[in-house]
Structures are given as C-alpha cells and as structure tokens.
Amino acid sequence: MPQPSHEQMLSFLRLSNEVAKRAMSLGHHPFGAVLVAPDHETVLLTQCNIDTVNHAESTLARIAASNFTPDYLAECTLYTAVEPCCMCSGTIYWANIGRVVYAMTEEKLLQCTGNH
Fold first, then answer.
1. More confident call, 106 vs 83
2. Annotated catalytic, 57?
3. Is pLDDT above 90 for 108?
4. Whole-model pTM?
5. 63 and 92 in contact (C-beta within 8 Å)?
6. Which among 41, 57, 75, 106 is annotated as catalytic?
7. Orientation angle between helical segments 86-95 and 56-67, nearest 10 degrees
8. Which residue, 11, 23, 44, 90, could crosslink 35 as a Cys pair with Cβ 3.0–4.6 Å?
C-alpha cells in the first residue's frame, strides 16, 4: 500500500480538527474524523463527534462499512487528531479500514484534560 506524504497527512489531520470544531459548534465534544481514498487526495467522508457512544471515528467507520467494500476500505486512511478509543478502534478494525493516522495519543489527551 503506498504511503501518504507527510504534507498529505498534516493536511488531513488539520481537516479532522476543522471537523472537530463543527462538533463543538453543535455542542458536542471536539473530535472529528476524515476518511481518505487510496489516492491519498480524495476525502470520502467526514464525521464529527455525536455523543458518548457515537464517537466521530466509530460513526464514520460504520457509515464507511455500509458504503464501501472491505477490500476498498483496506486501502483507505482514517485521520483523526486523537488516538481512537478502544470502542472506535474495534469498529475501525471490523470496518476493515486499512490505516489510521492520529496526532495525539489518548494518554496525552488524558494529561491535557484530566478526563477520559
């Protein structure tokens, strides 16, 4: 699987932050996820956080699994600012999304917020 460039990764991580800002404007926790096609350029889906059981990453993964084949998703990349939690990681795995790129570990998030 070809790797995205450093610039592409930064661009999509920034986009995930913009999606997270949308979540905040809707009164939700500030998390956002972006699914990018195998060409490392085409944005297929974006999703902001909805609530405590409908995180951005797990919701995006469920929508992706309903709209794309597992083989196609295996070549896609999910971008999110913070490391996905165990619920989201499991959903991403079962959706067969091939790569996840995040900027901050969940441990660092805990240090920054004091909350999980």
1. 83
2. yes
3. no
4. 0.91
5. no
6. 57
7. 10
8. 44
